[in-house]
Amino acid sequence: MIKLGLTGSIGMGKSTTAAMFARRGLPVYDADAAVHAIYAPGGVAVAPLESAFPGVTGADGGIDRAKLREAVAGDEAAMKRLEAIVHPLVGAMQRDFLERSAADGADIVVLDIPLLFENGGDRRVDAIVVVSAPEAVQRERVMARGQMTEAQFAAILARQTPDSDKRKRADFIINTGLGLEYAQAQVDAVINALRAGVRAKEA
């Protein structure tokens, strides 16, 4: 089973690209969705995060991500405490996903992980797809969401490996700045290349 790491900086179109792989029948593990699940009311991260960062639980009983961002903003030690809580929980969900996919006979699985390089996930996959777009397109997409300030956007970019570095380390690059049809064709090319490589090894 080929483990394909999918990553890309904020606003690059990674989630849309992940959905394209899913529509083609590939199991997709969504690291962001895993975090949302453990932050949700009753989620396994709620109690330990509230203990480490008092006041980050929202009125609904789940983690208020805006409050959590404020609690760790600009504080490297706080960020490390956060990661020490969240990463093991998310890692367990990823292992469960891989076990289920293998049992179902999947030949390729996609691991959609925003911080693939930053957290060393690139060492645990067989190939890497980086989703990219021109910087102007990226900024326009992010700011159009209306969910963060320019300063917050800059802070996120500062924590992420630069897009140029990601592209250098990629096995495949999918450019989402040229429209959906072009991106879909690139997704198909990645899948075909991976399956052709397996057939070549087996021959």
Structure, described:
The chain has helices at 14-23, 31-39, 46-52, 65-72, 76-103, 135-144, 150-159, 163-169, 180-202; strands at 2-7, 28-30, 108-112, 127-132, 172-175. It is an alpha/beta fold and 203 residues long. The chain is globular. The two termini are 17 Å apart. It has two domains: 1-27 and 107-203, Rossmann fold, CATH 3.40.50; 31-105, no CATH class. The longest helix has 28 residues, at 76-103. Strands 2-3-1-4-5 form a five-stranded parallel sheet, sandwiched between helices. The mean pLDDT is 91. Helix 2 (31-39) crosses helix 5. 55% of the residues lie in helices and 12% in strands.
How is the topology of this model organized?
Blueprint: E1 2-7, H1 14-23, E2 28-30, H2 31-39, H3 46-52, H4 65-72, H5 76-103, E3 108-112, E4 127-132, H6 135-144, H7 150-159, H8 163-169, E5 172-175, H9 180-202
Parallel strand pairs: 1-3, 1-4, 2-3, 4-5
Helix pairs in contact: 2-5
Write a compact overview of the structure shown.
The protein is α/β, with parallel strands linked by helices and 203 residues long. The chain has nine helices and five strands. α2 packs across α5 (76-103).
